[in-house]
Amino acid sequence: MSTLSDTSDLLRKNRGAYAIPALIIILTGLCIFTPPLLIFRQMAAYTFHIMIGMMVLGFFAFLIKNERIMVFSLLCCCILCLHLKGSANKQMRYAAVTTNPSLKICHVSLGNAENDYDMVIDYLARLDADFISFQELTPDWNSELARKLSPEYKYINTMTRLDQYGMGFFSKIPFHSMDTVYFQNVPNFAASILIGKDQVCNIISCQVIPPVNQAAFKTITEQFNAMDKYMRDLNGSVIVLGDLHLPPWASEVQQFKINGHLQDSRRDTNPRFLDGSIALPRIPVEHIFYGRNFECTSFSEIGNNTVGRLGITGTYQIHEKNAEVVQ
Q1: Which residues contact 219 (CB under 8 A, 6 or more apart)?
Q2: Looking at the predicted structure, is the pLDDT value of residue 261 above 70?
Q3: Domain check: are 122 and 80 in the same one?
Q4: Does 165 share its domain with 277?
Q5: Using only C-alpha atoms, what is the Rg of the chain?
Q6: Percent helix, strand and coil across the chain, each rounded to 5?
Q7: Which of 269, 194, 182 is nearest to 235 (CA)?
Q8: Where are the alpha helices (DSSP H) in the chain?
Q9: What residues contact residue 124 under an 8 Å CB cut-off, 6+ apart?
Q10: How many distinct structural domains can be found in the chain?
Q11: Among candidate residues 185, 213, 186, 190, the one with its CA nearest the CA of residue 200
Q12: Do 118 and 28 reside in the same domain of the chain?
C-alpha cells in the first residue's frame, strides 16, 4: 500500500512540475504563432505584458529554487523579447541628423486628452512641429485648435465629426495636394507637401474600425490592402500615421508594413515621453511608418500627467548616403 501511495504522490508532483512549463511554452507559441481565432488575437495584443509576467515568474521561481520553472520562464521571456524587437524597427540607434531636408510630425488622438482646450493646445504649440495630424476631431476641438494654432499653422484642412472618425491636418508647409480616401465609410486623409526644393512627401492619416470581432479583423486587413494599392500610385515618399487599434507585432500591421515597404518609427515597446521619462507599459496602438526615402532621427510619445497621453511625434529626414552630419 505504501508503494502505491508513494507512486501516486510522485505522479502528482511530476504533473505539477511539468504543467507550468508546458503552459508557459504554449502561451509563448500562441503569442508568436497566433491562430486566427478572436480570443487568441485579442490575447496576442498583450504579448508585452505576458513577457513581463514571465520575467517576474522566472525571478520568483529563482527565489523559491524551482529551477525548471525559472529556466522555462526566462527562456520564453527572451523569445518573446526577440519577437517584439523583430516587430519594431531593427536599428539599434536613430539616424544621425544631417543637413538634408527634414520634417517634424505629430499624431494626436484628441480622445486621449485629459484637460481643457487651452492647456492641451498650449502644450501642442510648444512642440514646434512642422505638421500635426489630429484624429477624433470634433467641431468643438476644431474651432479651438484653429483659433489658437492658425497663426503658426497657416495651412489647415479638417473634417469634423461627432464620432471617432473626425480628422484634420495643421501644417506650417503649404499643401501640394489633398485627398480623402474612404473605405466602407471610414475616412483616411492624405496630403502631399514639398520638403526642401523638390522632395514630395505624402502624409496619410489612417484609421480603422476597432477589432472587436472576426469580421472587424477581416475588414482591417482589407483596408490595409486597399491603402497599399493607393500608396503604390503616389509619387514621392510616404509617411503613414494614425491609431490603428493594433500593436506593432500584430500580423495585420506586420503585413501592411511589408506590402507598403514601410519602416516602424518605434525602436522598442516601452513608451517614453519627450522629457525622457518612462510611462507605464501599455499596448502601443499609435504608429508612424515611413518609406525608404526617409530615415527617422527621433521618436517619442507626447503628453504628460497634466494633459494625458496625446499621441506620438517623430522627426524624419531625406535619406542620402553622402549627406553631411550635423555636429
Answers
A1: 184, 208, 209
A2: yes
A3: no
A4: yes
A5: 23
A6: 40, 30, 35
A7: 194
A8: 2-32, 38-44, 47-63, 67-87, 117-126, 139-149, 214-232, 251-260
A9: 106, 108, 132, 149, 302, 310
A10: 2
A11: 190
A12: no
Residue at 94 is within a domain: no
Q: Which helix (H) or strand (E) holds 313?
A: strand 308-318
- Give the residue carrying C-alpha cell 486623409: 189
Domain span at 79: 2-87
Q: Whole-prediction pTM value?
A: 0.87
Query: What digits encode the pLDDT tens for the residues 11-46?
Result: 455 566 688 899 999 999 999 999 988 999 999 999
CA atoms 31, 90, 319, 95: torsion sign:
positive
Q: Residue 318 phi/psi, 5° resolution? A: -65, 135
Instruction: For residue range 88-124, list pLDDT tens digits in order.
Output: 777 778 888 888 888 999 999 998 887 788 899 999 9
Q: How confident is the model at residue 1 (pLDDT cuts 50, 70, 90)?
A: very low
> Closest by alpha carbon to 89, among 246, 239, 243, 268?
268
Report which residue type is found at 112.
N
- Report how far residue 124's alpha carbon sits from residue 132's, in angstroms, rounded to the nearest whole number: 9
Q: Are residues 107 and 79 in the same domain?
A: no
80 and 110: one domain? Answer: no
Tally of CB atoms within 10 A around 53: 15
C-alpha dihedral, 314 to 317 to 320 to 321, nearest 10°? -40
Of 24, 55, 87, which one is at a domain's C-terminal end?
Answer: 87
